[in-house]
Amino acid sequence: MRHGPGRGGNKVRSNRGELIHKIFNRLLDEFGPQGWWPAETPFEVIVGAILTQNTAWKNVKQCIKTLREGGYLTVEAMRQLPVSDLAVLVRPSGYYNQKARKLRVFCDHVETEWQGDLEGFLSQEMEPLRRELLTIHGIGPETADSIVLYAAEKPSFVVDTYTYRIFSRHNWVMEGSSYNELREYFMDVLEPDVGFFKELHGLLVRTGHLYCRRKPLCESCPLQGWAGDD
Ligand code: SF4
To answer: Exposed end of the chain (fewer CB within 10 Å): N or C?
Structure first.
């Protein structure tokens, strides 16, 4: 699924769109499709998005497996669990008391505001959904955008630490850019394409995880020495 720029506009915007598509194609050639986010249901995406805050995905996988085996991966089933029991089940993800409370708050919100209808909640238009998510305790912009993109399948680009690192280390974005500035950097020039947003995020996560670490491994990275104009 190679991809080319869509939206036109002024030269700066069009150059930026081209750069992002070149990065995408370079990483796709290197890694192939990522199929991110790995989850069986929208609720599983949501649980994963909350549990992955400040921890590696491998720790989250373990929790999801435990929750799935226990039959707790529905809003209703999770609300039946005392928060202290839920905390034990999500312990491998770290900050487990906080995360158990966040999960409960999310489930209570869907129950109270949407009578437990998760599908209805996720079926809203993108902007009202994103705004509502951001009112829920424990859901910041990255978690909200992950839920909008991967659980609700609506085109909100997800920015994470890796995205910031990769783009700021190459001076494609300014150091110290805020989450919203980074999100706009992408959203302003890209066609709203759910499949492309998912895959681009997955490829950036892969690049960051393998190469663009705190101590970068530039020598072997596919973006090494590249300013995006070759
Ligand atoms: S590891 Fe180096 S080459 Fe790769 S994205 Fe990070 S800064 Fe760029």
So the answer is: C
